[in-house]
Structure formats: structure tokens, C-alpha cells
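Progress note, sequence design subtask.
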């Protein structure tokens, strides 16, 4: 890991440009994998609405980010046409907002890496926005999910992406305050997964739990997802996307040489594998048999952890980071549900928020240079102390205009019939829950 990163990134070679472009064409498989997981963990009577919601959110984020968000993320990073908003405090520059042309102006003449960085951010904001959709399964209205995604694409994601990837103040902690190489997040653990997980927490707080999840006597009722095959196949799709994502991020944000990229892919696989092994063991010990959905969450938590550290850690450290993520996942899912009464069908709060935070922390713990741990802690504090309140406030205000939760009758008959007029599985009888009788 380099002690400092250049303010202006080096020009990509033709080979690096071609490789990164191909990888970014594969990266949407991570979005597809998470979408399938979200759908499989929802109820059968809400499956079509769940998958359509994922697709609609991807479309909404693409449009809104192109119209508004990309301007403030500063997609022309390193170009003379990019003039960021900077203020000075205590003799140091604080770059807090990008200022690229509106409507992607000047993109065709931008440097190769700026074009690739923009494509990376388009995919990143889409993945971040579908994460809270899974947590709101079975009660979050489609229009509300799309509106929340628009807010993330227009306001929150561009700010965070600029701070971390676009020469913003978090990225410059190394240059300005000698804190290692500044806040490091090459694969989007903070900008995608922690943002998505914290947004999921805000959605759950605002929308509330599903009917019948927490009976009056205070116990938790199991409401399992309807299709474990979707969930497990989604994990395999996600692996392909994550391998491409982490390697592309290493090239774009760390300027890693091509000779190191195979190691990044190996570390990604080791982190996910270690997490799955740990979750498998924990659920086998606790329940007598491994739990398929929790093992899928563990695998995904390992991938999320690798987003922070696959390009920065050794294989042994990546495996260790994955093991810790996998051990935490089933325990924290149970803690959030039983102790805090948080109804998170997809497990996104644990998988994406906690997994991402742990990966960011692991980068600081294993970093060889002085100050890197403090830089990572500053970034984590920003996510929890600034981004979470901002997201909650925006969603709370949005809920006043576009109510998040469907009406009780819609929840009773299922989101498919209520919002789409037909079910995902018309050949089969979908039974009602006992809690609605």
C-alpha cells in the first residue's frame, strides 16, 4: 500500500483501460445477485414486486445520477474542467463537493479514467440503493422505494463518493494530516455497502416491522424467505460481480499495477469463503444444522468485507477478515431481531453496514503505515455521525410526502396483488399467514 496517493491519478495504459472496462461490464452481476437475494428472502406473495422494485431502482438511480448526482460527485476528477468546492479551515483545504458540468457535459472529452470512474459510480449508486429495498420487503411501497433511491442518487451518494473517491477531504487525510494514505475504500465498502446498510436501518425504523413479526407477548415470529434457490444462486452471481468490482476498484482508486490484480481476486474469494465457513459452523453449533439463508448472508458479508480490503491485505489477512465477518453475521442478525425488534428480511443492516464497517476497520488494523487506522476511524465516524443522521432525516421527510408503508390490506393480500395486480406464481395457491386470520 502506497504511503500517499497522488492528487491527480496517473494516466491509465491502454491495457489497464481495456481490462477495467471489461470488468465493469461484469460488475452488474453483483447487482443482479443482490436483487435475487432480496427477492428470495421476501414472501412469495411479494416476489414480483420485489424483483421489479430492484429493476426500477436501478433505472431511477441511473437517471437521477446522470441528471444531478454526477455533477456533485465530481466525475471529471483529474481534468482541468473540474473545479471542486473547497473551503479552508485551520490552514487546511477541505474539499467537500464536486463541481463537474451538468448533464454529463464534457464526458466524451474527459480522460479515460474519468469515464471509467463515472461508470463505476453509476453501478455503485445502483447497488447502494437496492440494499434498503430488501430490508423493506413485504411492506415498502414501490413508489417509496424509488423515491428513496432518487434521494440517495441525487444527494447522499454524490457527497460520499466525492469525499472518498473524488479527491474529497476524506481521501486527502493523508496529504493534509499525514494519516496514512487517507481514507481508503477501493471497492465501495463505505460508499456502497455501509451507505446502503445505514439506509436500510433508516427504512426499517420508519416503515416498522411486518405484521405478525413481533407478537404482543414480545417474541419474534419466523417469517422465512420463500425461495432459498434464488438466494443461493444470487450468491454465486454476486461472486462474479464482486471479483470484477474489486479488481476494477483497485485499478481506478488505488492505481494498482496489473501484476497485483490476481491477488485482489484471490483475496475476494478467500474473504467470502472464510465468512461462509464461519457462518456454517456457527449455525451448525447453535441450531444443530446449518441455516441456508444465514449462510448466504455470511457469504455476502465476506464479499462486503472484501470490498474494503481485498486490494490492500494479504491472503491470510483477507481470510481472517472473512472469518470474523462470518462469525458476526448470524449473531448480529439474531441480536437485532430478538433484542432490538428490528425486522430486516434481507439482513442488510448486518451484512452491508456491519460487514462494510468491519472491512474498513480491518484495513486500518493491518495497514503497515502510521496513521492509517486513524484515517479509517475518521471515515467510520463520518458514516455513523453524519451520513446516518442525514439519510434518516431525508427519509423521514420523504415519508411525509410519499408514505413508505403499504396500507394494512395491501400487506395482508401481498405486495404483488396490491401494487401489480397479479402474483409472481399464479399457478400456485399462496396461503395467508395465521396472523391475518
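Output:
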Amino acid at each position: 500500500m502506497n504511503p500517499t496517493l497522488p492528487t491527480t491519478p496517473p494516466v491509465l495504459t491502454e491495457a489497464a483501460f481495456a481490462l477495467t472496462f471489461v470488468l465493469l461490464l461484469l460488475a452488474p452481476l453483483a447487482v443482479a445477485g443482490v436483487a435475487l437475494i432480496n427477492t428470495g428472502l421476501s414472501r412469495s406473495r411479494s416476489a414480483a414486486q420485489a424483483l421489479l422494485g430492484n429493476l426500477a431502482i436501478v433505472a431511477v438511480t441511473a437517471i437521477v445520477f446522470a441528471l444531478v448526482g454526477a455533477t456533485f460527485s465530481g466525475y471529471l476528477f483529474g481534468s482541468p474542467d473540474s473545479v471542486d468546492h473547497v473551503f479552508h479551515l485551520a490552514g487546511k483545504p477541505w474539499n467537500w463537493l464536486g463541481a463537474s458540468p451538468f448533464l454529463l457535459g464534457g464526458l466524451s472529452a474527459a480522460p479515460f479514467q474519468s469515464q471509467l470512474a463515472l461508470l463505476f459510480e453509476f453501478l455503485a449508486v445502483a447497488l447502494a440503493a437496492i440494499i434498503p429495498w430488501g430490508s423493506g420487503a413485504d411492506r415498502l411501497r414501490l413508489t417509496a422505494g424509488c423515491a428513496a433511491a432518487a434521494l440517495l442518487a441525487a444527494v447522499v451518494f454524490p457527497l460520499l463518493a466525492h469525499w472518498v473517491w473524488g479527491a474529497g477531504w476524506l481521501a486527502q487525510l493523508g496529504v493534509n494530516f499525514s494519516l496514512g494514505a487517507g481514507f481508503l475504500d477501493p471497492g465501495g465498502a463505505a460508499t456502497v455497502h455501509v451507505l446502503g446498510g445505514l439506509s436500510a436501518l433508516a427504512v426499517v425504523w420508519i416503515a416498522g416491522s411486518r405484521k405478525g413479526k413481533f407478537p404482543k407477548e414480545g417474541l419474534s415470529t419466523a417469517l422465512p424467505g420463500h425461495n432459498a434457490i434464488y438466494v443461493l444462486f444470487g450468491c454465486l452471481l454476486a461472486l462474479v460481480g464482486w471479483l470484477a468490482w474489486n479488481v476494477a476498484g483497485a485499478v481506478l482508486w488505488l492505481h494498482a499495477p496489473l501484476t497485483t490484480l490476481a491477488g485482489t481476486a484471490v483475496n475476494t474469494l478467500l474473504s467470502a469463503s472464510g465468512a461462509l465457513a464461519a457462518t456454517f459452523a456457527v449455525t451448525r453449533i447453535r441450531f444443530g444444522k446449518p441455516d441456508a439463508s444465514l449462510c448466504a448472508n455470511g457469504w455476502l458479508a465476506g464479499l462486503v468485507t472484501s470490498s474494503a480490503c481485498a486490494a490492500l491485505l494479504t491472503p491470510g489477512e483477507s481470510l481472517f477478515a472473512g472469518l470474523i465477518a462470518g462469525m458476526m453475521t448470524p449473531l448480529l442478525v439474531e441480536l437485532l431481531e430478538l433484542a432490538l425488534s428490528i425486522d430486516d428480511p434481507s439482513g442488510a443492516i448486518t451484512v452491508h453496514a456491519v460487514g462494510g464497517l468491519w472491512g474498513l476497520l480491518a484495513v486500518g488494523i493491518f495497514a503497515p503505515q502510521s496513521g492509517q487506522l486513524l484515517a479509517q476511524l475518521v471515515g467510520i465516524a463520518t458514516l455513523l455521525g453524519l451520513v446516518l443522521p442525514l439519510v434518516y432525516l431525508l427519509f423521514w421527510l420523504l415519508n411525509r410526502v410519499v408514505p413508505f408503508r403499504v396500507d394494512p390490506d395491501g400487506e395482508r393480500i401481498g405486495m404483488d396483488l396490491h401494487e401489480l395486480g397479479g402474483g409472481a406464481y399464479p399457478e400456485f395457491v399462496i396461503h395467508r399467514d395465521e396472523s391475518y386470520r
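The chain has one domain: 14-436. Work on this subtask will continue into the next period as scheduled.
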